[in-house]
Amino acid sequence: MVVQDSTDAGDARVGVRLEPFLHQVGGHLSVMKYDEHTVCKPLIFQEQRFYESLPLAMKRFTPQYKGTITVHLQKDNRGHLSLVANPLKENRGPFKVSTESAAVALWQTLQQTTSGSGGAHSLTQWQLAHSLEESPATTLLRSEFQLNAQVSSLVEDAKGNQSERRSFNPWGLQCHQAHLTRLCTEYPENKRHRPGFLLLENVVSQYKHPCILDLKMGTRQHGDDVSEEKKARHMRKCAQSTSACLGVRICGMQVYQVDKKHFLCKDKYYGRKLSVEGFRQALHQFLHDGTRLRTELLEPIQHQLRALLSVIRSQSSYRFYSSSLLIIYDGQELPERTPGGLHSQEAPQTTHGISAGGLTKVDIRMIDFAHTTYKGSWNEHTTYDGPDPGYIFGLENLIQILQDIQEGE
Fold first, then answer.
1. What's this model's pTM, rounded to 2 decimal places?
2. Which residue in 318, 50, 17, 70 sits closest to 196, CA to CA?
3. CA dist., res. 139 & res. 115, Å (int)
């Protein structure tokens, strides 16, 4: 990690200042916005290898992999901090990093850290404010909470109850705060290492009001290489949540409420507490815009999930431990079809599902592959036969619940 004055080496003039990705609804590593169509996340070697060897059939269900960049923590002459990435054009080759380097050790530590409200020391107000300086989100954030409250307080109120309604999702800001705090604490003056970040497609960039459901898939979440302590912890979480009985649990959610003109947000702690019936109700809530159930979404979502199920069934030896599935749609309804034909935004698309009327687009994407293992992967401890049964179990149950909602309405 490099901590550098803004006058040093000119990095501030050529670098890309990263900002928090405001539509991050789950996870514990910070996802950052690189540009309008690209996000980045801390590099984990296993995940990079997965994207580089991705089966062709799965590419339509994963974000596009755009390469890697290096990032440094920049400090100006006032002591204000921000994350700055080297431009992608300077890093066309694959990012080579030793698995024993301090940077990789840092990301592995971050991966194992829970981003609860008390999990990290709080950044001061000026640090957070500067990290958001001149970003498009600044005005929104200042008007919402004027940067005078800790980000963690946006997740739960003083009584420990989760606040549901926000004009933006607070989870990504909490992860960003914990990330910067950890970097400042662990590597305040180390100039020998620059952490790598994965560059990935921003899969919600096309949506005006992206409604996102983050689902942790499978009946097992721990990787083959984790410690016994972490294995026991993950097994306990699965046993106490819908992961055990449904093969899927909610890790985050935001759904736009058209009547209130803001997002309703839930996090992973909410998802862990849900019963089977609670999961069904939460899925119903995800499809409700505050005025009505978006029934036109049900068929295209199920269509995409069935297509993904077919792909997963064809992937022998893959185990997607701890990976998530995103379901995405736009909270801003598309206009009605005119007699003259489709609107420009309704032009036929072949990659992802559109409803039979050609109006409602949904997107299904698999993410988070740090613990994915498959035959020939470098971290392969066990060679598995056949497709991933836990993932398939979760998809089948998810499809059935959506079908039940559709038939119930």
1. 0.76
2. 70
3. 26
